[in-house]
Amino acid sequence: MTGFAINRVRLPPSGSIPPYLKPTKKKRKRPCGRKKGHKGVCRKRPETVTAYQTHSLESCPDCHQPLQKPVRTYKRYIEDIPRLDPVVTEHTVHGYWCACCKKIVQPKVTDALPGARLGLRLIVFTAWLHYLIGISVNNIVKMLSVFFNLPLSAGGLTQAWKSLATLLEPV
Question: Which residue segment(s) compose the domain that 138 sits in?
Fold first, then answer.
């Protein structure tokens, strides 16, 4: 049989009723929301405001006629996460000659793993996302690129996690 012939074969009817023959769903008897007399619950107004914006019009958006003074004003509070740009820090590490040890000594940079270009907070945060939350490596790479403007490769990230694991390995 060809594909066309298979489509013409009559199949026994299924036990379900087609959606267009089902009766429409009855309306909910009770109204949504809290019972009358109960105190309402909503998000509290923030205690501190970090930025202010004023929205005004000079002309009508529909007919483009000039407008006079506003006839009403209201305040709206919107809480949002800030745009995050990566912090790039240049570390200048000075080396000093130790006359007693007969070698050059220098302070340790504690913001990153030895020889790494990625910060410790970034490596720990992404390891937490992957190993504890369960986000895939590719999704973490996408998230860092989109939200933090920080392009990374999946391989670079997993190598950083490997370095972190060897550092945290019990002795």
Answer: 112-168
Pick the range with the lowest mean pLDDT from 19-23, 41-45, 149-153: 19-23
85 within domain boundaries: no
- Would 135 be classed as within a structural domain? yes
pTM exceeds 0.70, yes or no: no
Which residues, listed in sequence order, are joined to residue 135 by a DSSP beta bridge? Answer: none
Give, for 98, the enclosing helix (H) or strand (E).
Answer: strand 96-98
Q: Using alpha carbons, select from 90, 164, 88, 91 the residue that is nearest to residue 126.
A: 164
Task: Give the separation between CA 108 and CA 61, rounded to whole angstroms.
Answer: 60
d(CA 166, CA 162): 6
Q: What is the mean pLDDT of the chain?
A: 86
CB 145 within 8 A of CB 125: no
pLDDT in tens, 93-136: 999 999 999 999 999 988 888 888 899 999 999 999 999 999 99
Other C-beta atoms closer than 10 Å to the C-beta of 160 total: 23
Residue 137 lies in a domain: yes
Rounded CA separation 57/66 (Å)? 9
Q: Select from 97, 55, 53, 60 the least CA-distant residue to 73.
A: 55
Determine, yes or no, domain membership for 102.
no
Q: In angstroms, rounded to a whole number, what is the distance separating the alpha carbons of residues 52 and 58?
A: 20
